[in-house]
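Hi everyone, sorry if this is the wrong subforum. Our group has a chain we'd like a structural model of before ordering constructs, and none of us has done structure prediction before. Sequence below.
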Amino acid sequence: MNQNAPNIHPREVRQALMWFAGILWRGAPTAMLLNVSGRFIAALLPAGRILLIKELVDAVHAAFGQGEDQFIAVAPLLAGLAGLRMLEAVLNAVQDHAAAAIREQTSWKLQERVLDRAATVGLDAFEHREFFDRMQRARQAAYFRAYGIFRDATAVLEGFVVLCSLIALFATGHWSIPLVLFLGTAPVFYTQIRRGREIYALFYQQTPEQRRAEYLVELMTDRDAAKEVRLYGLGDLLVRTWEEVAQTLRQQRLRLTLRQQRYMSGGRLSGITSALLSLVILLYQATYGALTLGGFFALAEAITRFQGTLFQLLRQMGDVFEQTLHIRDLRDFVESPPEPEGQTALPSTPLDIAIEDAGFAYGDGPPVLSGVNLRLRPGEKLALVGENGAGKTTLIKLLLGLYQPSAGRLLYNGVDGREIDPQVLRQRCAAVFQDFVQYQRTVRENIGYGQAEALANQARVERAATAGGSALMIDSLAERYNTTLGRYFEGGQDLSRGQWQKLALSRAYFRDAQILVFDEPTAALDPRAELEVFRQFLALSEGKSAVFVSHRMASARVADRILVLSQGRVLEEGTHTELMQRRGEYARMFFLQAQWYQQEAP
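Answer:
Right subforum, don't worry. Here is the predicted structure as tokens:
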């Protein structure tokens, strides 16, 4: 365990509980009213049943050996008990139906809010481990805890009403009985609250290791990883690693449970003692004639029911406390601020981008970019080259507004990028990344996701397919644009890496963007094919700004200008001819690759 649960003020627990109650009410008000009212009525039934039992015992005692006439007098009491049982069954059915509606409605709503926040939070959040821990706790709260807290909270309400009705019955016995029962059960309340805190603290501390265990499961069940796992014989090792992590988590939970059972046993003993003392008081009252036989049996049953309900109530209060701590995590996540929206309007003219002395670091890591200065004019084609880790991909993420620089600034038509709504900026950009997404959806959606609001425009989808070079491949599919791709779902058809790549290119073309970015999307192609794709890309980006990243120097020649990056800094800048004449880093890399291809030529 490598992190401690935060200290939580009771006020935060109350606020989280009220927040959750508001979500329940807005999601399913009718079902909530039915469930709560049903529980309230059901909570009055135990006292009513005990009263009927008292009258029944007294009536049977009086009618003992008196014949049929007295039996008829007892019959209404039997009918009353049967009626209470039927009413209880009806109320249970109503509660179960309402609870199902609440469970489904609330769970989906909370999951939607978690997904919405995950989709709108700033991309830099995904660079921090703490964000994934918070998201993990929020997801689990939405999926597994949401209905549990409502169930336990309404059970607490029902238990409280039951106790109040039973206290009223004790007035017919002796005033000290409920006081004795409360004092004897008070330690249970403390132990249940302590138990809830400890369970939540362990859950909080185990989150990173729990994520590690889930990652190992995903790794062993992932289709793309399956090839390498089998090739290198990693199955047994990964299973053993998962078992070690899972075993550690299980042992931590077991140790906590054993420790809790020790201190909770004291509370149970106190409760048993108070119940015995209450029965002694009741027996004393009956001995001196203050109670009838029916009254004695009824109140003895009430003592048993009272203490059982009180124990259950206190346990459920502890559960509610624990569940509310998880709901607090959920609320903190879904109400965390989304990506900030700038207030300055972005002019509709073609984008002129200037990067001034920009630096960037991922999270708390070392700087990836330092002192970068760059100008991308409207319609200009720029190539980024450099060794792995030089900062090329990070630089294009800054250009696309996916990140804000840690130092310096980016200007779009003279406007600081921090003042512009990032969504407005991104609407003018399109990109094909090296790790492009293979959507397990239809062909039409794989292309149309480039601009979702125009997804239904079939003619535009087909033009993008032609531009991206995927049209011939699509025509060979059985259902053409309606073909489901991938192997995740039934009837899906998988594609080769190159075919998926062409769909990614088509997706970028589908977006009517002013800036096109290619981050080594042709890495799987041979040099000649890559050069052809870049030439086609430049032709299709006529009148637009374009930035592409490539490890192959020959492909960079088609750009208007080439930027050479090294260790996060701009090392050289110029056209292919200018850079070759300088005989610097670009020329060195170009000649190294040229020698390789010349050796391969024969």
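For your construct planning: The longest helix spans residues 68-120. The first strand starts at residue 353 and ends at 361.
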